[in-house]
Design goal:
Oligomer: single chain
Distance between the termini: 29 Å
Low-confidence stretches: none
Shape: elongated
Largest sheet: 7 strands, mixed
Mean pLDDT: 84
Radius of gyration: 33 Å
Strand content: 15-25%
Length: 626
């Protein structure tokens, strides 16, 4: 418990003890009034101060003003007529109990978020003449070799130069399974080194590192408000002045009417009803619990390795009806292997060598698999002009002659008729010197949980799943059938994927969200164009963190349905709290206006409903079983 909460708890206990003790003190009149001012001042001085500041700043109508007016009015009625001051002090006491409870709940939610923030590194070790010097990560330049000892956080993104170890990535991915690294492997900041000493050559400054981007995303999530939060803000802005003037009318108009009708005005009775009306009307339950629900939902998702950029995207995620997938790296492993060569007029080794030279400058997984199949150093002096044709392949000058490697569209654009392949896989057609020389068959492996992930999405209420891919129709059909995907389009260029998503956006039912799931490397245009962009397997991917609205920090497709379930649970809690708060207050306001509710019922309508709503809101933190 924080120092502030402890101080508040002491004030509550002291006030409660004084309230009970004063009940048995045999004094009356002004002396009794002055004695009750002591516990009232102890428990209510901060509320009175906030109300006064609000008046000075012309921001009068808030819950502090309502509580101040209601309790001071009750004290005045006690002084002038009833001699009863317990209600006034008790109302302020129970209000502060509610505030204490709410502060504790918010603190618990913030601690949940702060666990994510523990990925922030405190220092980086630099080897200076055999001695390790601790420096601020902000001071480390790109290309510096840093040392990470067992148990320390990796402070900056880089490449392992020496050492082998296992990394705990749970703070980033939500998964406890360690990741092994060795020399040559890329490594991202925010992981914890579990075993061996690592020497890492940094590739980014701290401000551009993965940990920095993730922290920025989490810290700014609360600034992007959902429609529900904006509604509550607008509601409170109009509601509070309305009930203040309503209470004023209740205090003045009925006595005046009674006077006109020659009845006793009963001013104290109607003022008491008006004060009760004010306490009941306090909108704390709504103003506190709705943002807390979203905050808790985002925090719970973050612990599961799902980063949601704001409550607006959490709300959008809950309305997802269509999920569109990129294939490579999203539904499949993105790890390709050369499995066969067909119709080749060259030796296998020669064919792969030409293909490896042609793809030597590309970072695409297909190109990586071809270079891996060659497995030897490439003589780059043999490579001349390189022309990459987006979505089709490359045309390269090798040993002075033109070599083309790509899909059938590339071949036909060069006036070369390819031989179609009936094998399942990605087909790379080859032409040397304008002559067709055969094709290479490359296969990708479907992720183990991909079929379960599609089934889980449908169980979560997603009614349509779609796959978009640049691969051939045979490959796409085989993957779609194996995974149970409803619809697919194949042989698409990057711009074709955007067009297909736009078509789906025009056909979708009103109020439904079309989400696109990609690996975050080359899917930025589609992630941006969809209603909701979800980047998967995005650990360390700048494109994903920038373009997507939801970032899954590992490559587990099961996290997509979990993210949707988290969002839907959070929205259910939000709607439950809205109905609870407005429903109970509406009933109690009517009872208060009719004189059927006293201050004790008013306390329940305000503090009791707030506690129930806050308790309900923090349920959004618990997502492990979803």
């Amino acid at each position: 418990m924080t120092k502030k909460l402890k101080k508040m708890l002491i004030r509550i206990i002291v006030t409660a003890v004084l309230l009970v003790a004063l009940h048995f003190v045999p004094v009356s009149g002004i002396a009794r009034f002055l004695l009750y001012l002591i516990p009232y001042g102890i428990i209510g001085y901060d509320i009175l101060r906030k109300a006064w500041r609000g008046i000075l700043n012309r921001q009068v109508f808030d819950e502090n003003f309502l509580m101040a007016v209601a309790t001071i009015g009750a004290l005045a009625i006690g002084l002038l007529k009833t001699g009863d001051y317990e209600e006034s002090v008790a109302v302020m006491l129970f209000y502060q109990v509610g505030e204490l409870f709410q502060s504790y709940a918010v603190g618990k939610s913030r601690r949940n978020i702060s666990e994510l923030m523990d990925i922030r590194p405190d220092y980086a070790n630099i080897d200076t003449n055999g001695q390790l010097t601790r420096v601020d990560p902000d001071e480390v330049a790109v290309g510096t070799v840093i040392v990470v000892n067992p148990g320390e956080k990796v402070p900056l993104d880089g490449i392992v130069e020496s050492g082998e170890s296992s990394l705990n990535t749970s703070a980033l991915t939500g998964e406890s399974l360690p990741r092994d690294v060795k020399p040559g492997d890329g490594i991202v900041s925010g992981c914890i080194n579990m075993s061996g000493v690592l020497r890492i050559r940094t590739t980014r400054v701290f401000g551009e590192s993965t940990v920095s981007k993730v922290l920025d995303l989490v810290e700014n999530a609360s600034s992007r408000k959902s429609r529900s939060e904006n509604f509550i803000s607008r509601f409170a802005r109009w509601y509070t002045p309305a009930v203040v003037f309503g209470a004023l009318a209740l205090a003045v108009l009925p006595p005046l009417v009674r006077l006109l009708l020659s009845f006793p005005p009963e001013w104290s009775e109607w003022v008491y009803r008006a004060l009760t009306f004010l306490v009941i009307s306090c909108p704390c339950a709504l103003v506190i619990s709705i943002p807390l629900s979203f905050f808790a939902g985002i925090g719970g998702a973050g612990k599961a390795g799902i980063l949601i950029k704001g409550s607006n995207w959490l709300e959008a995620l809950s309305k997802t009806g269509t999920v569109v997938f990129d294939k490579t790296g999203t539904l499949t492993m993105g790890v390709f292997d050369v499995v066969d060569i067909h119709h080749s007029e060259l030796e296998r080794e020669t064919m792969i060598e030409y293909a490896a030279l042609a793809e030597s400058a590309s970072s695409h997984p297909i190109a990586v698999s071809i270079r891996k199949a060659w497995g030897k150093p490439l003589d780059m002096s043999r490579v001349g002009k390189v022309e990459e044709i987006s979505g089709n392949g490359v045309v390269v000058e090798i040993d002075g002659q033109e070599v083309a490697a790509g899909n059938s569209r590339l071949m036909r654009s060069l006036g070369i008729e390819p031989i179609e392949c009936h094998s399942t896989g990605t087909i790379v057609h080859m032409a040397i010197g304008g002559h067709y020389t055969g094709h290479i068959v490359i296969s990708d492996v479907v992720k183990p949980d991909a079929a379960k992930a599609i089934a889980a999405l449908k169980q979560s209420g997603v009614h349509q799943t779609v796959m978009l891919t640049g691969d051939g129709k045979a490959v796409a059909a085989e993957v779609a059938e194996r995974l149970g995907i409803d619809q697919f389009w194949s042989e698409l260029l990057p711009e074709d994927k955007v067009e297909k998503v736009e078509e789906m956006l025009t056909r979708k039912p009103a109020g439904e969200i079309v989400a696109f799931v990609g690996d975050g490397i080359n899917d930025a245009p589609v992630l941006t164009r969809a209603d909701l962009g979800i980047a998967m397997g995005a650990l360390g991917s700048d494109a994903a963190i920038e373009a997507a609205d939801v970032v899954l920090m590992d490559d587990d497709p099961m996290k997509i349905s979990k993210a949707i379930r988290i969002a839907r649970k959070c929205m259910r809690i939000v709607y439950e709290n809205i109905v609870l708060a407005i429903g109970v207050k509406a009933v109690c306001l009517v009872l208060g206006a009719l004189g059927l509710a006293n201050m004790w019922l008013a306390v329940f309508a305000d503090v009791g409903v707030m506690i129930l709503a806050v308790l309900n809101a923090i349920r959004a933190l618990f997502v492990s079983r979803l």
